[in-house]
Each structure stands twice: as C-alpha cells, then as structure tokens.
Predict the structure.
Amino acid sequence: MRTLCSSTLIGEFFIIGFAGLVAMKDPDLSMSTVWTVCGVAMLLSVLLCGMVTRPGGVALGWALQIALVAAGFFVPMMFVLGVLFGALWWASVHYGRKIDEAKARFAAQADAPSPDAADAV
C-alpha cells in the first residue's frame, strides 16, 4: 500500500505546485497567501508518504483529497484534478491493502512447513 499511496502523493505534490502558479495570477489572492497554503499542502503530501502506513495516515490522505477538490473554488481545474486524484487515492488504498494481504498470505505459506517435507525425513 505504501508504494501506491506514496506515488499518488508525490503526483499531488507537483499538482499543488502547478495550481499555486495558476492561483498566483488571481488578483484577489495575495502571493504570500497562495504560497503559504500551497507550501503547507505540498509539505503535507510529502510527509504523508512516510506516514501512510501509520494510524491516521490514510485519514489525513483523505483530508488532503478533500482539500484538493475544495481548491477548485480558487482554481476551477482543481475540481477535475481533485476528483481524479481522489479516485487514484481510493485505488491506491484499496488495491494496496489487497496487495499487502496477498503478500502476507504468500509469506505465511512460505514459512509453513510442507507436509511432504515431514515424510522425507
């Protein structure tokens, strides 16, 4: 799960930065406000890469997805990108957990002694 979620978060890091460049052009927003908000969101996306497997990491990831969609009120294209990255986040969490479960099953099967090995002795 960590690899898939981290890949999504790194993609979001770049999208947030590009959205900040677009938001800078809005005369109603100050440059310091734009880069403070974008900087915090970019930092959160990088920090979440290391926290995604810890308790609350996935929930913080969902909060970031909601914030990306809400950024659409300032940069309209973020509605589309936020929904796309929300879908990617869901897929990363969902399929990442399935992959982790499959890896655990295969590891348990590899560690268990086979019945044929006992007969060979």
Remarks:
- Helices lie at 2-23, 31-51, 57-70, 77-111, 115-120.
- The chain has a mean pLDDT of 91.
- DSSP finds five helices and no strands in the chain.
